Amino acid sequence: MFFDPLYLLLALPGMLLAILAQIFVKSTFARYKQVRSSRGMTGAQAAHQMLSFAGIHDCRIEQVQGFLTDHYDPSCKTLRLSPEVYQGTDLSAIGVACHEAGHAIQHAEAYTWLSLRSTLVPVANFGSSFSYILFIAGYLFSAPFLINLGLILFSLAVLFSIVTLPVEWDASSRAKRLMVTSGVITSSEASQAGSVLNAAFMTYVAAAVQALGTLLYYFLRSRRR
């Protein structure tokens, strides 16, 4: 099963797409990291201004270590930005920071897809961690029940990847619009900052494609079994 040509056919394209998406987002981030915002705001200041413009004043903004480790934590209403984004005054930093602020706005407005994704987090983490164990055990012991249980658990992880797509797209759409209307950047800079968000979105598309391909492989493999 480990060298099954079917796996290469179904799962490998998603893996290659994920690699290409990562290369694309890093190169795009690096390109617009060289373009300083005309307003001179840091990513942290940009996120704060966008949130204030949206009427949100109870979201903390703090720095977290790592490269592009930026995320919004709805459990404690905290927006965490990597050093390059938190301190950066370039359009890449502005775009990423405002995207994460978009998630905070989604949370404040009880955006349905974000609520669904938050609900799926624990089961998706469990499914992605233990489904492979069940697959292997099911094949080793010829136990269809374990294989099917593994399929169900992995399906939850795939569902999480799919639900993530509208969440990320909407956060980027909010950021693209509010970056300009809140005065974070000028309208002439919007397309450049938006390019960073478009590149980042492709990583989520790649993850969903990869997850779907892997699920289809295990489904077909289980039926052949």
How does this model look, in words?
The structure is a single chain. With 225 residues, this protein is mainly α. It has one domain. Helices cover 72% and strands 5% of the residues. It is built from eight helices and three strands. The protein has a three-stranded mixed beta sheet. It is elongated, with a radius of gyration of 20 Å. The mean pLDDT is 93.
Key traits:
single chain; mainly alpha; 3-stranded mixed beta sheet; 3 strands
The overall pLDDT average reads 93
Alpha carbon gap, first and last residue: 11 Å
Topology, number of strands: 3
Listing every helix as H and every strand as E from the N terminus to the C terminus, the arrangement reads HHHEEEHHHHH
Q: What strand order characterises the main sheet?
A: 1-3-2
Give the low-pLDDT segments.
none
- What is the gyration radius calculated from CA atoms? 20 Å
Question: What fraction of the residues are assigned to beta strands by DSSP?
Answer: under 5%
Oligomer, anyone? Answer: single chain
Shape descriptor reads: elongated
Q: What is the helical fraction, as a range of percent?
A: over 70%
Q: Which structural category do the helix and sheet elements fall into?
A: mainly alpha
**Main β-sheet description:** 3 strands, mixed
